[in-house]
Amino acid sequence: NCEIVQSEAQLKKPGESMRIFCSTSGFSITSYWRHWIRQGPGKELEWIGEIHSGVTYYSQSLQSWFTLTNDTSKNTVYLQGKGLGAEDTAVYYCVEESH
């Protein structure tokens, strides 16, 4: 069995930072690219970035605010956001890219 567990909901004030995670069991995070996307209220899905074995790619419009990291020993990837504003209110999703 494979399972993905994400962080609980967080409530932040403007200007604060956030750090959310995505943990997996049943397969290694080093096997696949892991993407972070988000969807704000009434908005379309927006791609933030992707990470694989420490290699990262970011959306050009969001790369100044978000950082992706991974901890292979915990099979977990992290999304950190800084200087958040009301426009960053969204549901954030961790997505595995399989081939």
TrEMBL record:
List UniProt keywords, sorted A-Z.
Adaptive immunity, Immunity, Immunoglobulin
Among SMART domains, the record links this protein to: IGv
Q: Name one Pfam family in it.
A: V-set
Q: Which residues form a coiled coil?
A: none
Transmembrane feature ranges: none
Q: Does the keyword Ribosomal protein apply?
A: no
GO CC term, one of those recorded: extracellular region
Question: What protein name applies here?
Answer: HV323 protein
Question: Which organism is the protein's source?
Answer: Atractosteus spatula
By which gene is this protein encoded?
Ighv323_6
